[in-house]
Amino acid sequence: MYQGIRISGFGGQGVISAGVLLAQAGMMEGREVSFFPAYGAEMRGGTANCSVVVASDEVSTPIVSDPDTAIVLNEPSLAKFEPMVKPGGLLIVNSSLINTKAKRTDIKVLYVPCNEVAGELGNAKVMNMVALGAFAATTGAMSVDAIAGALPKVYKKLKPEVIDLNIKALRRGAQFKAG
Amino acid sequence: MADKKLMKGNEALAEGALRAGCRFFAGYPITPQNEVPEYMSWRLPQVGGAFVQAESEVSAINMIYGAAATGVRCMTSSSSPGISLKQEGISYCAGADLPLLIGNVMRGGPGLGNIAGAQGDYWQATRGGGHGDYRVFVMAPNGVNEMANFPNKCFEVAYKYRIPSMILADGIIGQMMEPVEFNTPEVDTKSLKEPDWALGISKGRGKRIVKSYDLREGYLEKMVLARVERYKQIEQNEVLYEERQLEDADIAIVAYGTSARVASAAIKIAREKGVRAGLFRPITLWPFPKVRLAELSKRVKKFVAVEMSLGQLVEDVQLSINGKAEVYLHAKPGASVITAEEVAKTLEKIAKKEAKEYAAVK
Question: In this predicted complex, what is the ipTM?
Fold first, then answer.
């Protein structure tokens, strides 16, 4: 089993947090994992991205150049990462902020209105969790429960009610499972 | 499983050094190693240690010269251009026989280069970037777990032989997160014996001097030769390496750090295509595992150095093998990423004898 993931969006959308969370969840499920952030001249409001690998064998390179799954949370990320997805792979598009449709026909494309869903739950900040829920449900690379279980390990200072809200967002996102 | 912790390479290096007894750190910020001083700045005070953000890399290395002279386990870290600035100090530390730890999280060079991971400081680390006849004990971690666990070995060797030690990582290993398991118990600094050369309050004992010079005629030679004897012991006792799938190999990749990870994946691809390849990974870069490589060259007839630099590691491979086998080079300088697929292609070409362009000697 090997799943290479790329997550990308505006700084502040929780791109890095989501990546660390996936790696932690994968580790807790007994997988080999790695997380690698883009650490160039990133700035507030600019685009941030990270690579996550979850695998049954040891991870060779942590930089995912042909992802099995790309999660794109803003418009520039769609343009950058859509061409990189492996044929047959998955592209999760945050349709709340991205109006453009994906062009590829050899990959699975899943449109999830992450911001709207997070807004309905009462906090726009959990939009990244909506995307992760959709990812877990669609790929089966890890369970929603594993990601939920990783939350308090990664974010030790989060209040229980905030953790609960994140878990709600994960479960809501999981309903966007692609066929 | 329960003991595993997801950590960033730079933080693992800092925590590993601290657990190995490091109680003083001086450094100056530079990407991609900034998490090392950041981590030390809050963590060292928790264990009664001290952190100083120095005004420059030059100050930082000289601050740990001073700290090491008192027998305190201490560390500085930087990335390539900053390590260049420290070279004078490293030469002085080597000349004064001071045990200490230097972290180099390599980035693209030369000059200011870029901030991506690279391996262009191999020569600087293994040949000594400073002046004079000296060596530094150099370990090359291949991931976050080794970042966490190598500082312990570095301090052990540094103190046993009175030599500066270095952990030579790169931006990828520094920035990535992986599961970490600390495999040695935390060093109790109170249980460490004060070295018989350490400066401090003399309390009636004879005076001690830590210095890197002796101007009396013939004395410097003696001092240097005594040090070289210790270097010989290190070459005898402290060589570390890893071998994978070499039992039936026709081709051996020689690679360290990030390149060795990519090499492992390349070997898997190449073997699926019928090329019997294996990996030889030097863990200590100095002392280089030259004796073992020479032994292997009796059986394996093709070696290929895979490195994120323009043919530096390959020279140690050539020196070790000394013409007994063919030596090739797959080099990618300037902080560009090597992929497993391209290395696998090189292996296939070498296997089919179509790899003149990769020959180390053309």
Answer: 0.95
